[in-house]
Prior knowledge:
By secondary structure, the chain is α+β, with helices and mostly antiparallel strands. Helix content is 37%, strand content 24%.
Amino acid sequence: MSASNAKIIPLTRIQKLIGNRMVESKQTKPCFYLTARADIGEVNEIRRPMSKKLGTRISMNDFIIRAMALAIKKYPLMTAGDINIGLAVASPSGLVVPVIKNADGKPLADIAKESMELIEKARNNKLTLDDLEGACITLTALGMFGIDSFLAIPSPGQNSILSVGRITERPILRAGEITVKKTVEFGLSADAAVVKADYAAKFLVEITNLLAEPQKLAD
């Protein structure tokens, strides 16, 4: 296509806002990046039975958000304030991040109900300003698009962001035997001006350990 025939598609207000905030973050946050793999086989097995038991649909992200909340209580430097966890959601007008506030004080069923409500509001462009304010860390997922792993950019005002890829089956060697496990890849981007790499590594490993024993997340 020649330059004279090129079609210019203007950015939406949200696209401009996201672009400006990501540039600001890259320029002001000296981030480091960590990756870890989590065994989510047991989560996958109990998710549907637990949904029936609790009377609400429990998604994989709900388990992850609950694990993040508990891990933050143990490693509080990973956030810039209260344990308010943002969930990146694609909406008709662009990417939005509604917030589950005080996630550490909410059981898994409440997190599931709230996240479902926020996702529905996002898809219908009905999020309020209050729904979008106060996140101290964000969970972002691209597994539904077939992405194995990726690293995200934390928003200004947040120390870190956790990314998660798709569920895959991998052969794992344990005690001389090969077993196939369902796993996901996590990527943690963290501000080196706020937390040290070993501290962030312990936080990420805490999340993977909690997901390997999901009954601890059901309370």
